[in-house]
Each structure stands twice: as structure tokens, then as C-alpha cells.
Amino acid sequence: MLPAGRAWWPVLPRAAWAAWGARAAIAAxxxxxxxxxxxxxxxxxxxxxxxFPAPGDAERVRALFEADLGVDRMGLGLQREGGxxxxxxxxxxxxxxxxx
Length: 100
Description:
Layout: H1 14-27, E1 30-43, H2 44-51, H3 57-68, E2 79-81, E3 84-98
Antiparallel strand pairs: 1-3, 2-3
């Protein structure tokens, strides 16, 4: 069940995700780290169809996303395109090499 009201998940800045990824990569023994990031775009209805929300939750999710259009508290860069809400998941990739 989704909580009512404003967004409940933390939105971390890119630098925080990059730092976390770098710490995890170093802990795994990787060196010569490289960082890349991009935004994975998806429409909300497609996401909901693949998420199998509990009865009534899809409407609550739509309402949360509608309320965040133009505000971006969730950090998902929501936009309305062709009558649909699209979102962009921020993705950070940390890669490196392991000593032989």
C-alpha cells in the first residue's frame, strides 16, 4: 500500500550516487574507475502495467505523478508528452578494472 501525501522515497543528487558507487567499486577491488550517467525514459502507463499495482494504487501513483509535474520533487524529470506522463530514471554507472 502506498502512503498518502508527498513522495516517500529519497531523491539523491548525482554526486551522492556516484560517491556510493565509487565506494562500492573500490570495496569490490576495482581500480581506474570511470563514471557515466544517463536518464532512462519511460512512460508512466507502461511502468504501471509492468508493476502490477494493488487495486487502487495505480490511481494513487498517477495522482502523485500529476502533482509532481513541473515541480520535480521526485527527481524524475516528469513531462506530459502526447497526453502521457513520461519519467526519466537517473542512472549512474561506475566501472573499473580488477588487478589480475
